[in-house]
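Give me the fold.
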Amino acid sequence: MKLSKTNQKIDNNVCKALTVACESSLHDVAGFVWLTHRANYTNFPASLVITCVFNTDEEVAAMKAEQQDEVLRLSIQKQLLKVGVVVKNIKQSVHFDSEEACQRQHRGEWADRLALSVVKQKPNARRVH
């Protein structure tokens, strides 16, 4: 489904913000490889879901153990604020996943995997990086 001009502008700003967060996190968070987002723009920003992807489940567990999840969330939140997107509950909006889990459960098909994560949302998932 095509986004309206206003929603396209919002999505472009979200992409810019997430690209900055992604680039800085690649150096700061061990195992982090890319992130993507999707949103239902009729309920934005509450519907914004960001998925941070690591290579392995072990890297996700290690990142959480070292509280790097907070670093990632704060970086994402800070960049979104710079483009005027206020996410009330960043913990609810940012999820962590791995290439390994996607391969195991969805044969590496990220579109299928991401579609399952969010009910009642238009698939507007994009790789950013």
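The two ends are 23 Å apart (CA to CA).
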